[in-house]
Amino acid sequence: MAHEAAIGVDIGGTKIHFAVVDDNGQIRCQDIVPTRGERGAQAVMETVLTGIASMIDIHGRLEEPPPITGIGIGSAGQIHYATGNVAHALDGIPGWIGTPIKRAVEQRFPYPVYVDNDVNVIGIAEKRFGAGRTLDHFICLALGTGVGGAIFHSGRLLRGAYGGAGELGHISVDFNGPRCSCGNFGCLELYASGTGIARIVRERSAKHGVSDPGIDSKDVMAAWHAGESWAEEVMQVAIRALSVGISGIIHAFNPQAVIVGGGVASNGDLLLKEVSEQVRQTTASAMWNEVKLLPASMGASSGVIGAAAQRWF
Ligand SMILES: [Zn+2]
Asked: Which fold has domain 5-127+301-312?
């Protein structure tokens, strides 16, 4: 039996996912709207506030709704944890940096408000309801458009000085590698994200004198699973980068598990198997013997469920 519920909002570059989630992790009602970030930060915040009001309304008309006790928000970019302001973001939403998400929502609704970045809230979903339920020390890696991370230490999220900790996609796996948007060279996300895998395909095509095939990471994964050799070559680059990165992460944090999720890792049994085999060879045995590589278990709604679950974390 659910005793209470919280509103979750997952603000991404292309869509905003709203839901009322109960304390068993079940979605009671939900809605997805386009972000249309080009409208700017203020317009996006208005969409967020309207969506929350609509969730409260719809939830109130369900049969015996558990009471709403909080609002949790996950946003792309980095969140200044103490204030709930956006500390850093890419260009998708002009003016998003500095947006006082927490304050704007608190001013409109009479509930406690929690704000964190989109990957930390995925980690919270796994910790509260998923593969991290019984773990105190684990890492979540989300392989999506970029690569994001969430680090759990002694049952708590490691946040660093202002909330920026866990940007594991910007661990370098090749100091001779290309320049990353963060300034560093050869970052993990240049190889193991959806855009990274597409970039490797483009570079290989150019090298073979073929024009840009316009292939995305989904096409590569499908061709890889079908046993096509060009996709095998591309994926071996991604797998090697991921393995070296995960090995470094294991040495840094001595986790009980590394939970791997995100679009690139969906249907990821083969990916995890190959990565595990390589990580075993590049990780000190005392560390390797204590760590498991696990697939994320919360699925496509992990962002919105984790956003709401901040209420109970
Ligand atoms: Zn980087």
From this structure: Nucleotidyltransferase; domain 5 (3.30.420)
